[in-house]
Amino acid sequence: MSIACLIVLLFSSCLSWLMNKKTYGKGIHLQTTFFVFWSLIVLWGIFKLYGLFDISDEVYILVIIGSFGFLLGNIVSTIIFDTQGYSKSTPKARYLYAENRTYKILFYVILGVSIAIVFSKILLLLPLIVTQGMSNARGMMQVDDSLQFSGSLDIIYYYFAKPFLRASLFVMIVNVFNKGVSKKYLIIVLVLCLVHFFSDGGRGIFLDMFFSMFYMYYVTRRKISVKKSRIIKKVVVVFVSFVVMSTLQRGSGIFNTFYIYYCAGLQYLSQAINSTHFTDNTYGFTCFLGAGKSVFGVLDLLGLKHPEILDEANKFLLEAQAYTVDVAPSEEMNYFMTCFGYAYNDGGILAVFIIMFVYSLLCGFVDFKESVYGNTVFWRSIKILFFSGVLFTMAIFPFTKFVNFMGIIYIYLICSNVLSKETLPYKKRTNVVNHY
Q: Domain segments of the chain: what residues?
């Protein structure tokens, strides 16, 4: 079954590349990236290094069905999101705040407030970080209420400070490259990364930024001088160094950790899929839990009750974080249900097909917008958020994470305010008024 799954993914990769190249032109496309990424995961998983256990046929079938759904979404999106009717024009590109002094000051004030709130969280964890290490501090944060904010401050932290900080990181990275590799923005990115890292201890933020910078470097590489390229390489070394040091601090090997994290999710799902954690009836709330929390969280504040199914989806996520199984004789794993596992909880095999189809349409829509409005900060920021999300689908469905959905909202608020409206960089040949 592993060979059949790999053949499906390789075929889908080739077909996706051909369709997206014809529709959107050359470049890195989200749908093709998804298929290539999962082809590599299945290929590496076949070797079963470090004694990884077998992957069940049931899980391979889920991957195949999800891939067919994603491929159908790819086909449909290249039909309905066709860029051939658009022509290029050359107005000024829109940057972070359109060089509007009033909004620039406002943005940095809001960013400063969010950093101050997140930094307060760091102060709660700092004694544990110093005495027990980052990984232990992060674990205790999940179970010790004294390490959590209370009341309104907790709401502000989760609904504003943390997602706004994350959104600002993506926007700043786009501006690093749009402004010719600005050292000022690079310093801001590094500071924000460190604040985010120490607030929750996750190495993923550095991988997020690495993937984002890789994409931006790729699309702007012809405009970057040799000197600026060296600066980018030094920053990448810093990101990688933090990931390496954090991994070594946990007592793990670098290649071992990389291989287990990227390849063992299917082994984990093979054992978890028959557990009592799966309900098969959350109807999309598991995969789009981030959106559900955003919408119904606001309604809760207004005194309106949220549906019980949202609690079921959130319970599944919490249980996945706590459910630990052996994926190899000396390797344990939790949380990494893969995007297919989270979709399976929403309604079984049918939900896997439908949700992956919808996810593919969303990726195609972002590719379309980025290819048409490529030199706007908004769509570039959304693109790198999606790009990073695709490269974490071995762990989770991207919009199960609250910060990803709220990140989109805050990117929109940062980049599309009334003070920074400018002429769009592209226009359609036909008589259509607005395509933004």
A: 2-92+255-428, 101-251
